[in-house]
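=== RUN LOG ===
request id: a7f3
mode: sequence -> structure
chains: 1
length: 195
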Amino acid sequence: MADDDAAVKAKLAALESEVKADAAAARQRKEVALAKLRAQQQEQQQLKQRQAELLTKKKALPAAKPKDDDEDDMSNLGGALELATRANKVRGELAKKPQKGEKSWIKSGIASTALGPIGWLYAGSLREAVPASAVWLALALTLGKILPSILLMPVLFVVLPLSGIAGVVYALQYNRKGGRQRLFDKKDEPKQLKG
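=== RESULT ===
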């Protein structure tokens, strides 16, 4: 029995040393993994710091303007004031009611949006409105018979608002000049020869 006890003790010691070796190996793997994780975290932290430095450099560069740009700022300010003045004039024109002999920009815009170039006949140049209306009617009749109306809808959603804008511009020009004015194909009038 003493031999059995000795053999059991030897097996127990071998098992104990094996468990200790496994625990030491696991501890070592854990330490290697933790070291690798710390290194990755440190790299990420350094990367974040470099990115932050780059961003602060980029933000600092536009802030430092040379003093020569004051003239550009003044010209930009002048352009903005000119644009605001023009917008105020247009707002004034749109706000006033049409007097006798003037055309309503609202009626012109609605007619041109609803009827296309046919609405241009209200305030537009007859040299432009009549041919455009004829082409519009011809296209409406031919395409209406060939294509289903569902295919024409996307085109109409683009063309009709543009036509409405042209109608408003025609009315505003009519009121400014006191008569029908051409919107498209404006050419300088040929000068008369002296003699």
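=== NOTES ===
The mean pLDDT is 81.
Residues 8-57 form one domain.
=== END ===
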